[in-house]
Amino acid sequence: MNRMPIRMTVNGKAAELVAEPRTHLADLLRGALLLTGTHLGCEHGVCGACTVELDGIPARSCITHAGACDGAAVRSIEGFDADPVMAALREAFSAEHALQCGYCTPGMLITARDIILRLPDADEARVREELSGNLCRCTGYRGIVHAVLRVLAERRSTS
């Protein structure tokens, strides 16, 4: 086994780990750092349950090799506690009944936050398109889409 040191900032804190370069980022976050909010679903980058923020951009941690993250800034769902956009999304997800089993929720929230910050004028069709890479088997997406639209509308009304 060819292990290497991997230095990254995880949720604002420096971390130095030793792992095989081909170890998946999700496995490193969950196993070595005990950040179990990053869920593994398909393990092929299709379902979005493992979405984290990598250098400010949503990324599938189940197909991202940890060796490629040396020097990167990673934020898992646990790293968004003080984030005002994420707080608004959590409230909207609850109000719009966008939560059921919760398995997809961490990845869905990280993707939704990206939509809100990157596409402040998104309409329902665009929100649905942007969320299409995150699968939810419980909600039927209506509540999730309405939650994102709710936060977008709130932000538009205050700006």
In summary, what is this structure?
Helices cover 37% and strands 16% of the residues. It is α+β, with helices and mostly antiparallel strands and 159 residues long.
What does this protein look like?
By secondary structure, this protein is of the alpha+beta class. The protein is 37% helix and 16% strand. It contains five helices and five strands; from the N terminus they run E-E-H-E-E-E-H-H-H-H. The chain has a five-stranded mixed beta sheet with strand order 2-1-5-3-4, with helices on both faces. A hairpin with a 2-residue loop joins strand 1 and strand 2 (13-19). Helix 2 (84-95) packs across helix 3, helix 2 packs across helix 5 (142-158) and helix 4 crosses helix 5. The protein is elongated, with a radius of gyration of 16 Å. The termini are far apart. The model has no long low-confidence stretch (mean pLDDT 95).
